[in-house]
Design goal:
The structure is a homodimer of 481-residue chains. Chain A contains 14 helices and 16 strands. Chain A has 481 residues and is an alpha/beta fold. Chain A folds into two domains: 285 residues, Zn peptidases (Aminopeptidase, 3-Layer(aba) Sandwich); 151 residues, Glucose Oxidase, domain 1. The termini of chain A are close together. The N terminus of chain A is likely disordered.
């Protein structure tokens, strides 16, 4: 589909690639794909870098969203305000085709909730209900505690689970440069613990908050939901209290009282917010950039995902303000209901099904407002043919963009809101950031705008704008299966 | 009082000290004081080091206190349990003269409390009442907010303070190796802000939590109290919410509703807990080591000051268990009510007034269970004559003990519970620790036992036991004015 193009003689290139082949994945053994960019794009990129890095607008926008609207769970009035805020902002930026596309979302409500230790002594525990959890009824649940470390430990104590409150005390590994965060591995108990324990007759499930750093900080997040899931209450306790309960349960019986009003209200109308700069040559070909407007119902949703929303809005604003003319359309999509339903992502895929064959990439920023380090890419969820080539193409594009420290390409990682698009072959991308502290704040009252560094936020805007512009200008397209 | 003693010829020493004099404080210009220790003490110290560093008892003791009793504010049932726990533990260790000496303490109760933003939007704010604060009455207080950065800013807006809730949004500098923590400077608004704002007619006072690291973590602590202090409610908000309120107040009026049930119940009986190894040669001369049994009414009081309590109990246990015979008496004192009254410290000074002339040092461990780095020392609060010599003596003793990284001597720093002793000339000492994270947890729900590293805790026990033993064996005494 693409032809090779480079300054080096063929033999030298082949030799180098053969050498590299000893330590690279199979797709890297192929000759590097050509990604020749139009002449003059260097100057355009330079203007984007300068505009993005010198602007104070990203932080001002994020602060406005966080302070004047605050957190914005699907089904809340605040999310409706955030939709209006985004529409007004994109209009004010002079964008084209600004619109709110209706999405019906489920409206999960936390209500009052508390967890009390009754035995061996009376003490309130720090907890937060998991999104989409059932409630306990007004009387609450009083039961003995069973603490397990993981699935095998639960199976070993399967006979004891019936009638108990089961706590999964599974530690998340701290972030490291080599391993990244331990989130992907530890989060399975938050999402699936309800099913595991419920099937054994547990009356409620608790999970250790999914984080490696806690100041007695409870972390919420979605728990698995659906007709097949036992309708028991599920909540997170803090790392501190999970460990204490584990220690106390080793000494003798621990009894707890859990009360959660959690329930679903009637579905509400929400919306995805869209805006564009139309392509001058191929307006029908689309580069999607976006984040999600909703957040959990604690903190301010600053890193998750106010930062992604602002990355996308500001990237489009800067490209327009500089008067740059992309060949393809660059579209901002601010999805709704990412956190506990993906209704916005599904609605977008459905409403824009006719455009997906011509959607050259969908890039979500949902890894916080930290310094950008690269891109994740997933070409399909199931078929990996062609993924290798797209990865190599993307790596070359990043090399040409040449933003310092923004160079990783991570296959198999895409934003959650792009997942319904993958099925149709759209390459799903995600802006990767320095992940050292993301899960300190994730889904907590501490995800507030003061945790976002203005310069790092602007670097993310620069990265997203640059990638979007290059994908819109490049004559080629990321390879599909 | 002491004579010089050293392997180097006089002239070389004098020359070296003159050179050093260019960059050292005045007391260092004097010849180094002799602190010759009895023969064989090296072996004793080696046995202390080995026993302390290999024991798991410190962590087990601290965990028992924290998990089974928990936090223990003066006037609480939990503090009474802690007194009994300490007495039983010291008896079990085989200590001499184990006793609980009665102390009457004021019983401040937090009760229910909450802070709500009403304007520009409705949202609950994360707060914690300050110890010894007045309450608001059952109706609470609704008032407009005035945010100031410091005293000068308050004076500049003095005319606006009447009828307002005043927030001191003063940032604490983060810890650095050079500067230490910014706590000493920033805490003045927590202790004194109530007086500053109350005198101008403020109806309540809020302070930014005194910490440089927050996950929306509220920090309590004592606010100034007494007949001359305006009886208005005082609370801390989190760093995040202080900053948000500051930003919002710059945009327009902010109205808050504060409710605090805070009040004093009738005084309660509490106790200082004491135990000893009696000196074989000078039983009447005493080295005091201790920490405070009480804590704030959140978290577990693990670093503050469960660690200090365990440092002292374990230090004495190890010295006894090794069969070491100190010339002087080593006495553990576990003070009560350090946090919001110092009633235990005053009671100890009064009950033991006849012994203070022969109290050669009083060492408090109240800087957490982190790695020990040295000792603070203050010889009197007012008269500094002789302090220099005591500092130099202590530095020599530390050099002879030679525990790695345990070498700092910091003049002018002593444990709060030793302060009533200073007036009588007793040298007050404090175990200094690595302070990088102490104020992350201080006075919060996050001060829990999982924050204490077992090895670091044992190193603190080693340091305290070694210093106590050396001060008990050294024929000399730290110089007094």
């Amino acid at each position: 589909m693409t032809h090779r193009n480079g300054p080096n003689p063929l033999m030298i290139q082949l030799f180098c690639w053969c050498l590299l082949g000893l330590c690279l994945p199979p797709w890297a053994l192929a000759a590097p794909p050509a990604v020749a960019l139009p002449q003059g794009i260097d100057l355009d990129l330079q203007r984007i870098h300068t505009a993005a890095l010198q602007s104070p607008r990203g932080m001002a926008r994020l602060t406005e969203l966080c302070d004047t609207i605050g957190h914005r769970l699907a089904g809340s009035v605040a999310l409706e305000q955030a939709v209006l805020w985004a529409v007004a902002g994109l209009h004010a930026d002079g964008q084209t085709n600004v619109r709110a596309e209706p999405v019906q979302v489920r409206a999960w409500k936390r209500g009052n909730e508390s967890l009390q230790m009754l035995q061996p002594r009376s003490m309130p525990l720090t907890m937060i209900g998991l999104g989409n959890s059932s409630g306990t009824g007004p009387q609450g649940i009083t039961a003995q505690l069973l603490v397990v470390s993981d699935e095998a430990d639960l199976q070993a104590h399967a006979a004891e689970a019936k009638g108990k409150i089961v706590l999964f005390d599974n530690a998340m590994a701290p972030w490291s440069r080599e391993q990244g965060s331990g989130y992907g591995k530890a989060v399975r108990f938050r999402s699936g613990g309800r099913v595991l324990a419920g099937k054994l007759g547990a009356v409620a499930v608790l999970v250790r908050s999914v984080t490696a750093h806690s100041l007695n900080t409870p972390h919420t997040g979605a728990t698995q939901d659906g007709p097949e899931v036992p309708a028991i209450a599920a909540a997170a306790v803090t790392v501190e209290h999970a460990q204490m309960l584990h220690r106390l349960a080793a000494l003798g019986p621990v009894r707890l009282h859990l009360t959660m009003d959690a329930h679903f209200d009637a579905d509400r109308n929400s919306a995805n917010v869209l805006a564009e700069i139309q392509g001058y040559e191929h307006p029908e070909e689309i580069v999607v950039i976006g984040g999600h407007l909703d957040s959990w119902d604690v903190g301010q949703g600053a890193h998750d995902d106010g930062a992604g929303v602002v990355h996308a809005m500001e990237a489009l604003r800067i490209i327009r303000q500089l008067g740059l003319k992309p060949r393809r359309t660059i579209r901002v999509v601010l999805w709704t209901n990412e956190e506990n339903g993906l209704a916005g992502a599904r609605a977008y895929a459905l409403a824009h099904a006719h455009e997906l064959a011509n959607t050259v990439a969908a890039i979500e920023s949902d890894a916080g407002g930290f310094s950008p380090v690269g891109l994740g890419i997933e070409v399909t969820e199931t078929v990996r043919d062609g993924q290798g080539l797209a990865v190599a193409q993307l790596q070359r594009l990043l090399n040409l963009i040449a933003i310092p420290q923004f160079s990783e390409v991570n296959p198999g990682q895409a934003g959650a809101d792009t997942s319904p698009l993958l099925k149709t072959g759209v390459p799903g991308l995600e802006l990767l950031t320095d992940g050292a502290h993301y899960f300190d704040y994730h889904h907590t009252a501490a995800d507030t705008v003061d945790k976002v560094d203005p310069q790092q936020l602007q670097r993310g805007i620069d990265a997203l704008a640059s990638v979007a512009y290059v994908l819109a200008q490049w004559p080629g397209r990321l390879s599909r299966p």
